Amino acid sequence: MRLPLIGLLLFSQLSFAQEAATVSLKNDREGKSFFENPAKVSRALRDFKGEELLEIYQNSIKGVEGSKLCAFDVNKSMSDALLKKSRRFDAYEGVLLYLRSKDQFDDVVVKILLDARKVSTTTIDLPKSEDQLRKPSDKVKLAEMVKTVGTFKERFLKNACYDDAYRNLLGEIRKVGDVTDVELEGLFVEAAKKKVINTETYLLLERARLNEISTNGLTLKSYYQKMTSLRLHKPLRDATERSDFITEKALKTKVSHRIQLYANYSDLQIMLMADVVKRLRTRLEAKKVTISIFGEDEEVEIITLEPMERFRLAIKLLRKDMALLATNTYFNGRTPGYMDLISASYETSLIPATELKELGGLEEIWNPAKTFWEKASVWIRTFSSVATVAIPAPYGFIPALVLVVIEATVGKGADTQPDNTVLF
Amino acid sequence: MKTKILVLLSLFSFSALAIDHEMEALVRSDLANMPVTEKVTLTNLVSEDSFDGEFFKIVKGKSQDAVKFSEEKHLTFRAATAYYHLMKARSFFVDVVKSEYVKNIPKMTIRIEHSNQFSELGHFAHDNLEPQFNNALTIPAGKGLESRGVQPWGMEIWFRPSKKINIKDLRVNNLQQQEFQVLLSQFRDQIRMQSLQRFLSNIAVAYTNNDYQGPSPFSQESLIRTVGSTLIIEAGYLLMDPLTKMLSRKWYWLDTAMIPEIIYHEYSHAALSDALVLSHSTAVIEGMADFFAGQIADSPKLATRIKKYNTYNGKNAKRKQDYMIQFEMQDYANTDFVFGMLWEMKKVVGDKQGLDFMYSLRKNITTNSGIRNELIEGILNTCDEMCEMPFNDKIRILKALNLKGL
Description:
- The structure holds two protein chains of two kinds.
- By secondary structure, chain A is mostly helical.
- Chain A has helices at about 1-20, 40-45, 50-60, 70-85, 90-100, 105-120, 140-150, 150-155, 160-175, 180-195, 200-210, 220-235, 255-265, 265-285, 305-325, 340-345, 355-360, 365, 370-390, 395-410; strands at about 290-295, 300-305.
- Chain A folds into four domains: about 20-120, no CATH class; about 130-210, no CATH class; about 235-365, no CATH class; about 370-424.
- In chain A, α7 packs antiparallel against α9.
- The model of chain A is unreliable at about 15-20 (pLDDT under 50).
- Chain B is α/β, with parallel strands linked by helices.
- Chain B is built from twelve helices and ten strands.
- In chain B, β5 and β6 (about 125) form a beta hairpin.
- In chain B, α9 (about 335-350) runs antiparallel to α12 and α11 (about 370-385) runs antiparallel to α12 (about 390-405).
- Chain B is elongated and about 120 Å long.
- The interface between A and B is large, with 37 and 37 residues.
């Protein structure tokens, strides 16, 4: 009898010990930081030594479980420690960038912490103008909502991170009735007027509303969960490998490829995306590709593809795989971009850092970048056509000449007729 | 001991026999790359009075005797030019490419002013059988035909005499000229359309606007304005062709023994013949020879202005006006497509490694290699062997080829 009890005790000790271990957010994929700014780092290092900053950071995450990671708490802990030692310290961003430069964490964590910092330091213009406030029209529902808001601190914030607490609060409010963002503003003011919340809580709620943190899917906790899951299922082949490519700015966004990846996709989605690139790579390396044609009982013809046909087939299959991802239930009709696939493949160690740039460059084949003149020629053609009539003789031939020159130079593209000597 | 003495003696005799001789030859000027006559040193000669060297013997026509320095200037000038540039080409392959094969090629007979066709059995075809001009040729070694008194022969290079041919008799597919005609035709149509549109809009304005004060669209002044520009363009269009013919060159000839790039090209055939046999002319082996000729010449002009050196304009396979796959078949093997392609491949692989890469490529292709299949496959296999990062470099190669429409 004693033996199983001892066993149970040991097991629970072990579990407890694992849970209590400090989380590690260390950078293990990124090269040059997307946020690199030596000037800000220098400012931070004017008041503190590097070792001090490292110690402050380590203390802020010490003993924190992965499931309880909160960017706002980390920021607060570090800020308090910094201000304790230097009252007028105002180079918090520099501190984060310094810690990033020492690989204590990566750009994703920097982004999360900076965004959290931005929320925490948002200034609110008070008092609010009554004329511009809107509240939910139904008075009964309004009262119910106000009551719910009053429970924010005790019911939601006490046991959850600020952003999670706010998200949960909104969920509860919406159970009572629909509320727009403008009405939320009015609701919080109403709650403050009715004194169900104090000024501090009101400011918390208003900052959260202004910064729309309920829509932000990328939190420290979710990032840690995704990353640990990926490392578990797809262990890194080379933990020392780093890539500058994935920390470059993603097109039409203000973040890097890697930040975009973690912001938009779950760990399972990332793994599925990476598999697409793995298949692409295998096809690109293929020495032989054949198409078999079967008659009734046997193979009647084998067509061997030429090297360029193999290449274009691989690209076509890639595009097919990308489109088919949208039909996968885990993607809910969403088609990831090609660069997201590349980032995912690197994140899961399926593609080494040295191959990212070339693989990423394949997108030019089906999505070529237009030169300035190609874009401008559309407009020049339009206006030249009008100008040929509008401009009086003898100068009317000038726009005509411009049109012909455009056709001869910019218009010198591929023939639209398909080449029937190739399969792909 | 005796063997050692004999070896030493033969080495001494060789070095003693290596004679240098100064003569005038045609070379490329340093700055503008124009042909100029300069005094050059012909090295490694074994004769004091003829173009007989350690590696090359220059003869006239079917003769077996080297051209003497004392012969007529027309002949010696060509012989000196051929000898000088052949030595340059050989040095390139031995010292830069480090080809063991070229180092061990036996002395080659170089025939200048030679118009006989080649016969695989008899060495020379009959004198009267369609004499050849304006060309050059590298022939493989032959066993000869002892029963007919035909002696075996080694690898040779033949330079044909030049012969003036009227441009009318030359089958030229001048795609550049055709393209210009098309553009001019489009411009002419545009002006006509513009004149018509203006005429119609003048009529509309004149007959719908009660306050119109301008001249009638049918007045002489208006008609002259409307039709005038069209007439000028029409005159230009019709006169363009006769004017071009009147002002352009009418005669064509090619003195191949006097053109360094052709000399390099022919020698490159010989240098690559360990892998690319000289059985017949194909786009791939011509392209390879062109590539090395360009390297020996070290002239960017050759690469960038390929159009001027060739009757075809096959650089961009995406435009069917410029390129058709049939151009790469045997009859059209003198296209520049493979040359341009290999030149670009060298840039993709990297200039530093490019030369070694292209030289190694010969082992992965054959004389009968097609472009889209065996040549590209050969390039990819060579990359597997030689590229620093084969996966990345192969992707870059495939992208570059795809962009060219292959």
